[in-house]
């Protein structure tokens, strides 16, 4: 049974992205810059380093207004050069 994301969400809703990327100071700024284009607001992302410190996990929560916004953010966040994975 395959369920689509838009069938599980009721908009507007709170939606958290977890972005895994190379541990560089500019990673958080680049993530926030992309999010601001699609969901302007005042964000305070949480950053957790990996056990060896090579990667950072950046968690950022938005108020999503429609499924196209959620999907566009997944795509654009994944296109950031430092990013390895978006959950």
What features would you describe in this structure?
By secondary structure, this protein is of the alpha+beta class. The protein has a single domain, classed as Alpha-Beta Plaits, CATH 3.30.70. 33% of the residues lie in helices and 32% in strands. The protein has 3 helices and 4 strands. It has helices at 5-8, 26-38, 67-78, and strands spanning 13-22, 46-49, 55-64, 83-86. The longest helix has 13 residues, at 26-38. It starts with a helix and ends with a strand. The model has no long low-confidence stretch (mean pLDDT 93).
Oligomer kind: single chain
Largest sheet: number of strands, sense, barrel closure: 4 strands, antiparallel
Percent of residues in helices = 25-40%
Q: Radius of gyration, rounded?
A: 13 Å
Structural classification: alpha+beta
CATH class (first level) name: Alpha Beta
CATH superfamily: ACT domain
How much beta, percentage-wise? 25-35%
Order of helices and strands: HEHEEHE
Helical run tally: 3
From the spread of the alpha carbons, the general shape counts as: elongated
Low-confidence stretches: none
State the end-to-end distance: 21 Å
CATH fold name: Alpha-Beta Plaits
